[in-house]
Task: structure prediction
Amino acid sequence: MDRRGEWFVPAYGPERFRLAVGLLFLPYTGMVLGFTIIGSLLAPAIHWDRVAAIVAIYFLALGIGAHALDALGSREAKPWGDAFSRAQLWTVAIATVVAAYAIGIWYMVRYTPLLWLIAIPEGFFLLAYNLEWFGGRFHRDSWFALSWGALPVLAGYILQTNAVSASALLMALAMGLLSLVEIKASRPYKALKRTRAAEGAQLATLEAILKSVSIAVLALAAAMLAWRVWG
Result:
């Protein structure tokens, strides 16, 4: 499936730049970063350097690394055509994932060892989901909701507190369910795009759902940020 015509791919600029931005899947990456911020801001006291750290970690590992791996592991036709070679995708994936874990390990060794409980499964899902290991067994909606929705919330909270709370678990559940809505809309959306039924009413409805969910998560994160900064 050629994803050059997706709504999140810029319509203007050099093609390689447009596809590089598209590879980041910015609305969905933004959701994940929003989840980490939401989890962080549930903490009683905020360490702002750790908020920045968890955003950087997930942007590098999931926003860039996971999407590069997804392009490598896709069972469909190359989603970005010949814009990126396999060597380039592997180089980007390895560099960004290593950088993300370097940041995370520094904090886990010094302040938050409990974060290992998130870092290890997230590393597994990063590879198993995107490279479709084990016959694609982990490339499923439920695992997506856990690894891209619930765990980022807990990662943000744990990096602040080195603890888990009932509020963090409930928020993780809520954001996991929102991620489930996103992926449940995304799969039929991609299927319709594959048939080139680009003007269909169902396609427009699914695209509206995807846009609304991603914007809602970002708005919630912004609202919580405003509340913690200005009260």
Remarks:
- The two ends are 46 Å apart (CA to CA).
- The chain has a mean pLDDT of 92.
- The chain has nine helices and no strands.
